[in-house]
Amino acid sequence: MAAVTSTLVRSVFAAVLGMFYFGYNTGVVNAPAASIQQFTNLSYHSHYGTYLNKAQQDTIFTIITSAFIVGGMVGAMGGGFVADKIGRKRGLIVSQMTGLIGAIIMAISKPLSSWEVLLVGRLVVGLTAGLNTVLVPMYVSEIAPVDLRGGLGVFNQLAVTSGIFVGQILGLSEVLGNEQGWPWLLAIAVIPCVVQLAILMVSPRSPRYLAISLEQVDEARKELMKLRNNDDDMVDRELEEMKAEKEAEQEPEMSILELLSSKNLRVALIICVVMHLSQQFSGMVAIFYYAVNFFESAGISVDNAKYANLGVGSIMVAMTLVTIPLMDRLGRRILHLVGLVGMCIMAILIVIAQNLMPKKGSEVSGGSGGFLIAVTLGFVVFFAVGPGSIPWMIAGEMFTQGPRPAASSVVVFVNWAANLAVGLLFPLVLIPELDRFTFLPFAILLAVFSVFVFVFLPETKGKTVGETTLLLQEKGWGARRN
What we know:
By secondary structure, the chain is an all-alpha fold. The chain has helices at residues 6-26, 33-48, 54-86, 88-107, 115-143, 149-170, 182-187, 190-200, 207-213, 217-227, 232-248, 256-260, 266-280, 284-297, 302-330, 332-356, 366-385, 390-398, 404-434, 440-456, 465-475. The protein is globular. The chain starts with 5 loop residues before the first helix and ends in a 7-residue tail after the last helix.
């Protein structure tokens, strides 16, 4: 097994701070929602001389929160282009500079008494997060040794869940989630940007990008020597593997449109898209956004529900840590499948638990409330086993250097779009229309995704990217059986 060097650890840590930035900003405005709505009302009055009604306040707040996702979708579509034109490391540096500006813009919105400035800040922060979700997994997969690629890839999701968890803690009303503290809560997004920029400046560039995309083999060797602790044999083997990949590569650097029209890459692209859909359409987004309401319906007081919600974040972080050593032992296929099947069972149990709950106004029994909490936390555990982390790394394992940036852009854009769809449909359609059966559609989708993964997803553990790509192109939908 390849040695874990200090340069590799430092570089991966620097890169995944971009995913921490994404996780932190995902829901950080939710906790101080009332304070931000009050701010938008006062800001609107200072500009236009009238106050907003409740519906208008809700609309503006929804626009502010949704701006993050819109920016993320734009960033995701542009991430592949940035990776191709200036490289993975330089792309991350540009992204973090943009993120630094976005965090500052959000922080100064209150002193300027302008909700429009906050909106622009959320849009810029979302743009940065979208770029990060393309560039970070790509950089990590390209600097990692083959036999450590899975475990190091899990750090993408670990950083996301850590960012969400830190945001939950700091967002408590007793900390920064209040009228005085919320600008500081948003300003904290500056910290990961500054730390990442400082470390990236002394981190190596992607050897694969240098050797295959730019044909700068000598430069790639220098960077590999840093990452592999001057192990000449290992560096020579990896450079030979890169040379073989370049010689065998049938697909050159391509645009998104060229990727979408390529028959050779269609199977790999569809598999990666479905993997990302299985992450977002699993129902985990709904758990993240509405866990407090779940706990309140289970009989926990409003004050205690927000602390119980911290349990969701802590379990996500802990279970993601557990999967790091498992990823390169058990493989991506088995972990993702176990996660999906487990979530499907938990989703069915959530539906049962919701229907066992007494009607509103009645006293909640400890048994039914406890059952709902237990199966909700079980759902979170199975998400962390595989579906939380594997989609972020899968494109880097199924596409060679040429089409990888375009493929990453497409699948990450799908991820953001699905996130937006669930965030809108769950409160506006599923809750009012399905009531106590809100998780039934998720259970059905999880069953479909489980069958798809079982039938079509090949194992990528221990395989070079070239080997996986060749297998998919030769065997197509039958690649899993090899």
